[in-house]
């Protein structure tokens, strides 16, 4: 599996040369082996892309993100052909029971709130506020029917921003930073979900009719606090500068604890997806492996 995340801006052309990505700017060019690439983030709206390159990127299962004028990922290119056992995986997924889905969602939300409490502790929030989140973890039921996730979110975000803050308010540049970071990780999860032969549009909890990646929207939840921690620790001074965007992209190389080992976020995503498949196949709770950010190690550029 590739590991490099390539950020493209202000170049003339991207093309294929042998088994390499060829990046050209005026008389200069750079070549990167396709086998080394996990993701290609393209922000240059005038950059030329050859169809031959796009085909080879697809064959190599490289995540390709095309960004809009506000630098946010707008389009994700995915291969038509998927997992070698795609039909078998798909049929199994269609048989996932509602009971198991509710149990899986309970585990996901518990880990999300756990990671949020860790972010609060790392950023020296008053202990009585983080204690409230820890208490909520024990109150999460299958399917989170009483919305402990929402209650935790209110306490969580109000611990870092003023009372007028809202996640939907575009006037906060922190929201732009959070949205960018979330979009990068969400796309990486969607890429992995498809690579594993799953139907990305069929989620565990999310059921958005216009969301082609409901399953990725479920799995991202315990990963979100990684982005939160970085934005809180390093608040943006301006709207998504190039340097800041690259720092957010590089969080894919941050390390988290999963299955009792420290792994990059890229690898942790794969482990989490595999464990979710195993849980639904076996019904064994111990198969579930989700990221814990207690020992979070940020990637240094």
Would you write up a description of this structure?
By secondary structure, the chain is α/β, with parallel strands linked by helices. It folds into two domains: 4-77, CRISPR-associated endonuclease Cas1, N-terminal domain (Ribosomal Protein L15, Chain: K, domain 2); 86-297, Four Helix Bundle (Hemerythrin (Met), subunit A) (Up-down Bundle). It contains ten helices and eleven strands. It has helices at residues 51-59, 86-94, 98-122, 127-137, 148-158, 173-195, 214-219, 224-233, 242-249, 265-282, and strands at residues 4-8, 13-17, 20-25, 28-33, 37-42, 48-49, 63-67, 73-77, 255-258, 261-264, 292-297. A hairpin with a 2-residue loop joins strand 9 (255-258) and strand 10. The two termini are 21 Å apart.
